[in-house]
Specification:
- Two copies of one chain form a homodimer.
- In chain A, 45% of the residues lie in helices and 16% in strands.
- With 335 residues, chain A is an alpha/beta fold.
- Chain A folds into three domains: 6-49, 434 Repressor (Amino-terminal Domain); 62-160 and 290-320, Response regulator (Rossmann fold, 3-Layer(aba) Sandwich), CATH 3.40.50.2300; 161-289, Rossmann fold.
- In chain A, helix 11 (245-257) links the parallel strand 8 (239-242) and strand 9 (267-271).
- In chain A, helix 10 packs across helix 11 (245-257).
- Chains A and B meet through helix 4, helix 5, strand 2, helix 6 and helix 11 of A and helix 4, helix 5, strand 2, helix 6 and helix 11 of B.
- Chain A binds a DNA duplex (30 and 30 nucleotides) through helix 2 and helix 4.
Chain lengths: 335, 335
DNA sequence: CATAACAATTAGAGCGCTCTAACGCAATGC
DNA sequence: GCATTGCGTTAGAGCGCTCTAATTGTTATG
């Protein structure tokens, strides 16, 4: 288990350690035959550069720290794909940590990454307090994904929740709906803005009188509960805009449990266009965030600071689209 | 951005660097007042230990490398929870990498972790060739999760696919099914064993004549295709056992598309008991692997080698159970 | 032919930490 | 009184690498 070091390779190749270092870093000014000799020796010995030592000496880790607050949420996996692609192109590694859905867990994960002296930080859907984020950003370039800090100097990438909500509402309005209710996402990231966007869009459509919000959260149970509340009413809505896909799935279950069908009796729109929405027989109409692109942009923002030395704050807002599927249709008139 | 070092803390606290080191490592033989002085100085300066330097000097990283081959598959997220819990209890960090669903990506991820000199490796659902796994295991203690290497000396934790398949078949047999077909998982991890288990269970139930396997894979599309093949037959099966949940979801879509219903016309069983299976309105009967426990065990095996110095190989097999939900019922007699 | 210019190579000083060995100093024993 | 013990502390040598500056060898230039 004693791993060969650069010194060993140098000796085996009959050159100095510095020359081996040059070869390993792919520096240009090395003669072809020496380069080959070094590579051969390294291969023969099974040499593997020690990233720790390299980083200690070079003050860079070539690693980005990515914190995901919930691995089970497809939102994060999608964003990660974009980040990974961009990072790989720049030759950076990723170190992933997860907050385990708790704020304390997130703080711990953040601390871990800072101790590893990662070159930059991408916090996806982070729920920790703003001051902790600012503190981290003061030490290491940081980009927030799916959240923004308006009061502080931290880069961010998020989608325009207002537009997303408007797309959902407009789509339903165009289909002829008026009684469009919203099951909100409680304290989830972006939930408040989705709700505000819904209310604004309803007003813009002249439907202020039909605004109706029931409380839920970003889970299936939240959707079940929200739908139950709505269906218990004397004059239930004809369409439901749920805070996210999981919530919509819950709402659909409840609708079906009561013997109604979608979209004949109720139209249903979700948010996130996650893997759930796409599942063939669910086929949920959903607001789609360009996750991969967002991840891409987040990594890009980091590199702008790391490589180009940008210092001014950038708050990037992307525009969601609507993926129309099988859960929306014209209202039946009345129930 | 110039981070304070241990030297700075030592100076600020009026002690030697070695003493600061002792305090940071929570070593016992330090007087209370000095310890406090050091902690205060560290806090005041915003000192954060440099894990890189620590690891270089101590030859340990206190970090486990975990490779997941697909973040989108809930199977992995579940296993990770178990790993994370155990690792945290031992004071170890996790470094996650993802193979991006490709073998080449897995190899790259593995190499990355080895260069970081992680203390141990857990490969979840790895698809890379056995010799590369053996090579990694020779350098760093390694545990395979969801796969086993019978020919080589590598620890592993996996579920008994044979039992899983048998549970599925027996359940269907008890409901009265005879024509039970299997949509297999192609080259996915464990697919071959699930298939073999299915065949064996069918024979054991005296249904050897009804054994029928159509090719699919661990995806929705595979399920759609497999179900289409089965339903096109003159005498279609009355029950379908799919290689995994996603595959089952695809099969269900196809069944529904053709105007049949589940479980009235066809019973359907999945595998993995993933988040898809639980979704209220899907409610898929599925073979359930104790994911968290498996992750737990995997981490445990690593610590046994790391801490206790175990050297003999352990191949741990856990027993799956069947989560019976709404997609299985008695056959209708005939179609 | 001496000299400048350049490419290829290397010596050596760290990077921030851990860890061994040794040190000072009090309490203890004879 | 002097050796013994043990705790609290520290000096100093690395860990495996990068990077600057110096050195060597080679070719073009006046």
């Amino acid at each position: 288990m004693a791993r060969p070091t650069m010194e060993d390779v140098a000796e085996a190749a009959g050159v100095s350690r510095a020359l081996v270092s040059l070869v390993m870093r792919n520096e240009p000014n090395v003669s072809a035959h020496r380069r080959q000799a070094v590579l051969e020796a390294a291969d023969r010995l099974g040499y593997r550069p020690n990233v720790l030592a390299r980083n200690l000496a070079s003050h860079r880790t070539m690693t980005l720290g990515v914190m995901l607050n919930d691995l089970n949420n497809p939102f994060f996996a999608g964003a990660l794909d974009g980040i990974a692609e961009r990072a790989e192109a720049e030759g950076y590694q990723l170190m992933l940590t997860t907050g385990g859905k708790t704020v304390a867990g997130e703080a711990g994960a953040l601390e871990t990454m800072l101790r590893f002296h990662v070159d930059g930080l991408i916090l996806v859907g982070a729920r920790i307090p703003a001051n902790e984020i600012v503190a981290a950003a003061a030490v290491s370039p940081t980009v927030l994904l799916g959240r923004a800090l308006r009061s502080s100097e931290v880069d961010s990438v998020k989608n325009d929740e207002g537009v997303g909500s408007r797309l959902a509402v407009q789509h339903l309005v165009e289909l002829g709906h008026q009684r469009i209710a919203h099951i909100d996402g409680g304290r989830g990231a972006g939930a408040a803005q989705r709700r505000a966007g819904y209310e604004k869009a309803m007003e813009a459509a002249g439907l202020a009188a039909f605004v109706e919000v029931v409380s839920g959260d970003f889970s299936e149970a939240g959707g079940v509960h929200g739908a139950a509340t709505l269906l218990d009413q004397e004059a239930p809505p004809t369409a439901i805009f749920a805070a996210n896909d999981l919530c919509a799935v819950g709402a659909r279950s409840e609708i079906r449990r009561r013997g109604f069908s979608v979209p004949e009796d109720f139209s249903l729109v979700g948010y996130d266009n996650s893997v759930f929405a796409e599942l063939g027989h669910l086929s949920l109409t959903s607001v789609s965030q360009p996750l991969a692109e967002m991840g891409h942009r987040a990594a890009e923002l980091l590199f702008e600071r790391l490589v180009c030395g940008r210092t001014e704050v950038v708050r990037h807002v992307v525009t969601p689209t609507l993926a129309v599927r099988a859960t929306t249709g014209s209202p039946r008139g009345n129930l």
